[in-house]
Specification:
There is one protein chain. This protein is mainly beta and about 200 residues long. The chain contains one helix and 15 strands; from the N terminus they run H-E-E-E-E-E-E-E-E-E-E-E-E-E-E-E. The radius of gyration is 17 Å and the shape is globular.
Length: about 200
């Protein structure tokens, strides 16, 4: 049985409209980047530019994107079947490609795993499901309490209405936020960490 508190919390999330992420976050690539049959995503760092990279594992192979620009950097349509999905590895990783070839990238998604849910300067990410199976991604500055009305210290930034949710989280640097569904990825980035703001 659901308590009165739980019902109010559920209704708070249902009533919150999807909004743009607050400053300094900006959406990358003007929306979703289509990826058919997406299984999971993971983060890496470009060895030359230092940009955060997002590696995508799908039924159609592996892809690597610059998480700051949304640009596709590398694609492998025919990865080794023995390592093409993260469940083949005890640490849920897949071999990197392009500029990160020779490294392993941990993948979060359909087979498990997870991404960072907080940043060093205090942003928090929660995935809630008040109307399962339609997951919602909540970005907040209040440690995940999500109190008060939406738009104050918390924002409903993504609603998975049309595809199955796979993973959501921050890059290890805290400068990129990614949401992955079975059909696409959505990225937000910011230029720097801000402490004490």
């Amino acid at each position: 049985m659901i308590t009165e508190f739980q019902q109010k919390l559920r209704q708070r999330y249902i009533d919150a409209p999807v909004t743009q992420a607050p400053e300094p976050w900006r959406q990358v690539s003007d929306g979703e980047i289509p990826i058919g049959g997406l299984l999971g995503i993971g983060f890496a760092v470009h060895p030359d530019s230092g940009h955060d990279l997002v590696m995508v594992v799908s039924g159609d192979g592996h892809g690597l994107f610059d998480a700051v620009t949304g640009e596709k950097i590398a694609r492998d349509r025919d990865p080794d079947p023995d390592t093409s999905t993260p469940d083949a590895s005890p640490d849920l990783s897949c071999p990197g490609l392009g500029p990160i070839a020779g490294t392993q990238v941990r993948i979060a998604g359909l087979f498990g795993g997870g991404l960072h849910s907080t940043t060093p300067d205090g942003w928090t990410l929660d995935v809630v499901s008040p109307e399962w199976p339609h997951d919602r991604v909540i970005l907040s500055t209040d440690g995940g309490l999500n109190e008060g009305p939406a738009g104050g210290t918390w924002w409903h930034v993504f609603h998975s209405r049309y595809s199955e949710f796979r993973a959501a989280g921050f890059s290890p640097s805290g400068l990129v936020l990614a949401v992955a569904t079975s059909s696409d990825i959505t990225l937000w980035s910011r230029p720097e960490l801000r402490f004490g703001v």
